[in-house]
Amino acid sequence: MPAHRPAPVPEFLYGTAWKEDRTPALTELALRTGFRGIDTANQRRHYFEAGVGQGLAAAYRAGIVTRADLFLQTKFTYQGGQDHRLPYDPRADLSTQVAQSMASSLEHLGTDHVDSYVLHGPASGYGWSDDDAEVWAAMVKERAAGRTRLLGVSNVSLRHLQQMAASGAEAPGFVQNRCFARLGWDRDVRALCRDRKIVYQGFSLLTANPEVLGHPLVATIAARNKATRAQVVFRFAQAVGMLPLTGTTDAEHMQQDLASRALPLSADEVSAIESLAG
Ligand SMILES: NC(=O)c1ccc[n+]([C@@H]2O[C@H](COP(=O)([O-])OP(=O)(O)OC[C@H]3O[C@@H](n4cnc5c(N)ncnc54)[C@H](OP(=O)(O)O)[C@@H]3O)[C@@H](O)[C@H]2O)c1
Questions:
Q1: Which residues touch 5 (CB under 8 Å, ≥6 apart)?
Q2: Residue owning the nearest CA to atom 31 of ligand 1
Q3: Strand partners, 243
């Protein structure tokens, strides 16, 4: 295990998907702006993980942060979610693929451990499968070897989580899901997470919820606080216990997103937003 005291889980994660050649500069800018949590994946189709590593290295060189200040999260992605640029041998068994993907992530990120390792999505949309059980066991081994502090699962339904628990698998530390307001902001999954002390990470909080951003209630709260509607949504997410992600490419939005935690939101406003669309 790392000798230093691990960085705590931050209140916001900066997401690095879809940034391609801009990944190094945007990662560095996010750190310069104050983000301390970085989310990526060893899935070249949507993420440039080696570019995240270049951004981290630049930030270390510039004296902005050290590795110990950061919460780094990456993911294992099944072949079905990848393009031809695989971080493992597709002929190897799944346990070996997890080990190879992790080794490649550590090389990309220039570190000997990540803070969180996430199963990007279960093998099937229907339930927790034998393949998932094998991958999860391999991820637990990675943690035992000190290559990650914590484990998580992403793109999961309540059924996935219930079947995972029923199989006797160790509970994840994180669930990372796309968060739709029309599904009560993923109400059922969030309730299970609350019960089992799993931290819920929400993504697409803005892009999945245009009806919330356009709602008069959110507009009124934003105007009263001289804030943006996006800030109200992020503040709401934190108020209900979520760890939000933002992948903004805009310097001002980065500052606004971090500043949203100071926005005053009453308990009545939180419950009104929670039931706004579902
Ligand atoms: N586990 C998974 O399967 C999965 C899937 C998708 C995403 N993720 C993670 O979640 C991260 C975030 O992705 P996302 O789907 O939430 O979308 P996103 O990349 O954060 O996109 C947000 C969009 O909203 C815009 N925006 C406007 N005002 C904003 C503000 N104040 N703050 C932030 N954005 C603002 C952004 O434009 P500007 O750039 O102009 O600000 C951008 O077009 C990804 O980078 C990735 O790390 C994970």
A1: 68
A2: 253
A3: 201
pLDDT of 163-220, one tens digit each? 999 999 999 999 999 999 999 999 999 999 999 999 999 999 999 999 999 999 999 9
Token pair belonging to 28? 């560095």
Residues with CB under 6 A from ligand 1: 15-17, 39, 120, 154-155, 176, 203-207, 228, 230, 245-250, 253, 256-257
What does the pLDDT read at residue 1? 43
At residue 79, φ and ψ (nearest 5 deg) are: -55, -35
For 67-103, what is the HEC assignment?
HHHCEEEEEECCHHHCCCCCCCCCCCCHHHHHHHHHH
Distance CA 208, CA 237 (A): 13
Q: DSSP readout, 140-178?
A: HHHHHTTSEEEEEEES--HHHHHHHHHTTPPPPSEEEEE
